[in-house]
Design goal:
The chain contains nine helices and 20 strands. By secondary structure, the protein is an alpha/beta fold. It folds into two domains: about 45 residues, no CATH class; about 300 residues, Aldolase class I (TIM Barrel, Alpha-Beta Barrel), CATH 3.20.20. Helix 2 crosses helix 3 and helix 7 packs across helix 8. It is globular.
Length: about 375
């Protein structure tokens, strides 16, 4: 928790998911940290805290910046391929990952870094004006700014623009039911498959993340993909990769795409080297042998690991090079043209043509 003072301004709004305790503190019920706060205190996430005897969100309508990305960068390979997505984040995070690769934003405790502002209506309008098919809540975890994200998703849906959550999935069941049904797609970081890793390297627990994954997959219409960042010597053993892959296949289904991403030294883990290409390729083989239909490698140049193949006959369906679509062979129904097997995902008749561009943008009120 933080004792940094909370000042009431236009970006501070009353938040949901909390209750009073007998000792005159209030407990935040958004995530399994259950931060217990006295007047003026902030939770570990930094953007939720207690003010005037109420839980508040202090980053509503504020962002560290806006950028148009390829949807494949989230990464989402089976959700509107080739289309541009308006991406933004705020500050803070409810995890304490020692390997955070967006630490300048997620670990920020300086609210003045949130220099850009945009209302939900402005975000929806600008996304439409710039030809984006979706808006992504990313860079830091959107569950901590749930109220802002849900309001933005609703505004976007009125303009036929989809909403995407990039999240670690560390959220309690009741707020999850108020968040994910508004998301058209989600990429969830399954950071490892051991409680040791979650406890020592993220300051959290694995169990709630698995519950979130099951909830999204079985109780919402949200398109789900999963990313695991492979850190040498920490979560890349044969046994752990087999256990993770088998759990995803058995509990979520073989059609859920799984991305294995390369680690680079950052934040508090600069002493560990980059993930070798062979580690990613080995992880991909293990996951496919476990029965998963769509397994990808990320943060490396690996055309095979970027390509979507028909899981029945092996025909290449979407050939990628980094974030650039090079070939598109799905038919109008999203099926393999060779054998007719459906490819799981959310597809349109034609792919987008945004390419690999990354374009920073400013919001205009």
């Amino acid at each position: 928790m933080s004792d940094s003072p909370i000042l009431r301004d236009s970006n501070v709004v009353n938040a949901q998911h909390w209750h009073w305790l007998a000792d005159d503190r209030i407990q935040c019920d958004l995530c399994p940290r259950y931060c217990k706060l006295r007047e003026g205190q902030r939770g570990l996430c930094f953007v939720r805290g207690r003010l005037d005897n109420h839980m508040v969100l202090t980053s509503y309508g504020r962002s560290s910046g806006f950028c148009i990305d390829p949807i494949e960068k989230k990464p989402l390979n089976h959700f509107l391929p080739g289309t541009p997505v308006l991406s933004f984040g705020t500050a803070g995070c409810n995890l304490a990952c020692k390997f955070c690769q967006n630490w300048d934003m997620s670990k920020s405790r300086e609210m003045h870094t949130l220099a850009d502002q945009a209302s939900p209506a402005t975000l929806a309008r600008r996304a439409d004006e710039m030809g984006c098919r979706s808006v992504a809540f990313t860079y830091n975890d959107p569950v901590i700014f749930l109220e802002y994200a849900v309001d933005t998703a609703n505004a976007c849906h009125e303009s036929d623009i989809r909403s995407v959550a990039v999240t670690a999935g560390y959220i309690c069941p009741e707020p999850a039911s108020k968040f994910f049904p508004y998301m058209d797609a989600a990429n969830v970081d399954l950071k490892a498959f051991s409680e040791r890793f979650y406890h020592q390297l993220t300051g959290s627990e694995l169990g709630p993340v698995l519950e979130t994954l099951q909830y999204i997959r079985h109780e919402t219409n949200t398109w789900l993909e999963i990313t695991t960042l492979l850190i040498p010597g920490e979560n890349d053993s044969q046994a752990e990769l087999e256990a993770l892959s088998q759990w995803v296949c058995e509990e979520l289904g073989p059609e859920v795409p799984l991305h294995f991403s390369a680690f680079h030294p950052d934040y508090k883990m600069t002493h560990i080297g980059h993930t070798p290409q062979e580690t990613l390729s080995r992880a991909r083989r293990i996951a496919m042998q476990a029965g998963l239909h769509y397994v990808y490698t990320g943060n490396v140049h690996d055309k095979d690991g970027d390509t979507t193949n028909c899981h029945h006959c092996g025909t290449p369906l979407i050939v990628r090079d980094w974030y650039q679509l090079q070939e598109w062979h799905l038919d109008a129904n999203g099926a393999c043209p060779h054998c007719g097997t459906s490819c799981a995902g959310v597809f349109e008749a034609e792919p987008g043509r945004w390419g690999a561009r990354r374009v920073p943008v400013r919001m205009v009120p």
